Each structure stands twice: as structure tokens, then as C-alpha cells.
Amino acid sequence: MPNPLKYNKKFDELNEEEKQLLEINKKTIADFVEQSSSVSDVNYATRNAHAKTYAAAKGIFWTEPDIPESLQPFFDKEKFDLTIRFSNAQLKIKNSKKDIPAYGFAVQIKDENGGLLANYPLVNFPLFPINSVSTFLKLFTAINRVYMKQWSSLFSMFVQMIKTLPSLLTGDMLRNMLMLIGKRNDFILSFDYYSVGAYRLGDQVIKIKLSPQSVDKNTGRKQKIKDSLTNYLQTHDFTADVMIQICYDLKDQPINKLNVEWKNSPFIKIGEVKITKDSLLDSRDCTNELLSFNPFESKIFFQPVGKIQKLRDEAYKVSVQTRRKINKLLHGKSS
Questions:
Q1: Does residue 82 sit in helix, strand or coil?
Q2: Best-predicted range by mean pLDDT among 99-103, 142-146, 182-186?
Q3: Cβ density class 84-100: b for 16+ within 10 Å, e for less
Q4: Cβ atoms within 10 A of the Cβ of 297, count?
Q5: 326: Cβ contacts below 8 Å, ≥ 6 apart
Q6: Chain segment 297-310, per-residue pLDDT in tens
Q7: Of 261, 275, 311, 329, which is the most exposed, with the fewest CB atoms less than 10 Å away?
Q8: pLDDT-based confidence at residue 147 (cuts at 50, 70, 90)
Q9: Distances from the Cα of 193 to the Cα of 63, 126, 127, 278, angstroms
């Protein structure tokens, strides 16, 4: 294989227009989170994405014994402790039996002293449909406003949606959408989960894939997703392979083009995630809703790479700060 491409901060840089749009977007995120308890009809402020928590659990990452030598400095322990959150991507929490099959598998990795090493919010779809930063910001701003019943933003939302159509029509996007439709009723733990965007691994740039081992896709077909997931984790051990792809060439492994899959970069298994049965955390505990899986809180050499990822940094900060402020006030009132 050729030498891995080295990380360059230019991969993350926004232009002036994008920076201005980001400031507008951050204001709507704060407004949305402040009003989110009424939007979702719950008694706490929710996240502005992946608002619905199905469950949270403790887990362990076991390092692959024969991991490639170049990766060994980053995986110098036999095992690492994990906190894992399972979620749905919707902004609004609905108590429905059937949710859209847009699931999150967020992983927080700790060192032996309990310090944070990395956060990886993984999702069950490997691609992102928008490459234009300005289109994404305008669309997300309009969606936040519509959720807050600012109906004048409906037109802007539809205009930006139309602008995303060309990036939705790549072969990779269409193939993965058809696969997702075919798996829409499958059990949440039977899906593969992906980092979507790229991440640093020291000076290298990688993508991550988590692939479950031997999980029956028909589990809990007649149950609510939350019930089927918690029942499974109370009675079964769960194991998934963790694999990475390395960026060697921007033509084959583009960092700022998220609607195509990386090619000519084989998956390398680096370890396994294990959740032993009965490792669930108390879903009624307010501290679990205060958990943050912001990948930019990770150690610098594990952080996200790319312009769309950079937007997530600012969005996470605003969302978490607003959510924690409100939830701590609510928690104080109820205690």
C-alpha cells in the first residue's frame, strides 16, 4: 500500500460566508434546545439531533492482538472502558412503535484513570447527502426554525432540499438508500455503524466501521425499538468488530465529499466492542441525558476531520451548553 496521507488543518477550514452562516445556525440551535421540551413533549431539554435515547450501556473495547505496528501506539492497552448510547436521529421525540430506521451508536472511550480519550458518534448509514457547507447550514437553520413553528422558513427549507438533490443521486447514495429500505424493519443491533466523516488517528486520516457479530435481524419485530433493545441487552452479550479504512489519496478517499464511499482502502480490524448482558445504565437517571458524545472533546489526535465535521464542533458545543444549563436547572427543581 502507498503511504497514508498526512492530516492537514486545511481539510477543516471554512470560508467567510460559511462562518457567517454558522453563527446564524448556532443561534437557531440554542433556540431549538431551549424550546425542545415542548417540541418533544418531555420534561427536559433534548439534543438538537439524535434526541431520542433508546438505551445507554457500559462496554469494553478489546484491542486486536496482531494490530498493525503503525497503529500500536494508539492501542497500547489490552482493553478500554466504554460508555455507549443508542439513539434515533430525529430532532423530535415521539413515543411511537415504529421510528424511522436512522439509528445512532455513540461510543465514549476512557483511559485507565477514567479520563476521556475519544467520542465517536456512529450511525447506521455510511454516507452524508450534502457536500456543500452553505447548503447544509441554510437547510439545518430552516429545519430548526420550522420545528419551532416559524412557518416563514418553510420555503427556505424546501429550496435547500431541492439543492441537495444532485448529491443524493450518486451511485453509492442510491445503493445504500435501497439497502436501508430493505433493512428498515431489522433489529437495531443487526446494523453496521459508521463514522460517516473522517477522523484523525495521529497524523493519519481514517473512517470507522462497527460490524455486529451474529445478531438476529428479526429480534423484537413486534416490539417497540426501545423495548426490544433493552430486552436483548438484559439477556444477551453483544460483540461487534471494529474496523478502519486509512486515507491514502484524496481522489479515492475524499475527506470533504461525504456522499461517496472510500475505495482502494481495505478495512483493517483493530478490535472488538463487547457489551456483557445486564450492563445497561439507568435510563431514568438524569445524568445519562447530560452525557456528551462530542467528538471534538476527544484527544487532539483522535478528532474529526473535514468541513462538515467542523460544523458539528460548533453545533455540539452550543447544543450541549444550552441543554446542560436547562437540565441542571430542571434537575435542581425536582431534587
A1: strand
A2: 182-186
A3: bbbbbbbbebeeeeebe
A4: 17
A5: 33, 34, 37, 44, 45
A6: 899 999 999 998 88
A7: 329
A8: confident
A9: 18, 7, 11, 22
- The closest alpha carbon to 30, from 328, 324, 306, belongs to 324
Q: Are the C-beta atoms of residues 301 and 206 closer than 8 Å to each other?
A: no
**Distances from the Cα of 76 to the Cαs of 63, 69, 111, in angstroms?**
8, 11, 11
Looking at residue 33, its amino acid is V
Q: What is the DSSP string of 231-243?
A: HHHHH--EEEEEE
pLDDT per residue over 22-46, tens digit each? 888 888 877 776 665 555 455 444 4
Q: Report whether 269 contacts 134 (CB < 8 A).
A: no
**Model-level pTM?**
0.84
Residues contacting 127, CB < 8 A, separation 6+:
172, 173, 176, 196, 258, 259, 260, 261
Per-domain boundaries in the chain: 9-15+49-308
C-alpha distances out from residue 92 to 99, 126, 146, 151, Å: 11, 23, 12, 17
What's the DSSP call for residue 280? Answer: B
CATH superfamily of 9-15+49-308: Catalase core domain (2.40.180.10)
- All 3 cell numbers of residue 196? 460517516
What does the block give as the cell for 314?
A: 460548533
In the structure grid, which three cell numbers stand for residue 218, read together? 428479526
How far apart, in whole angstroms, are the C-alpha atoms of residue 118 and residue 298?
A: 4
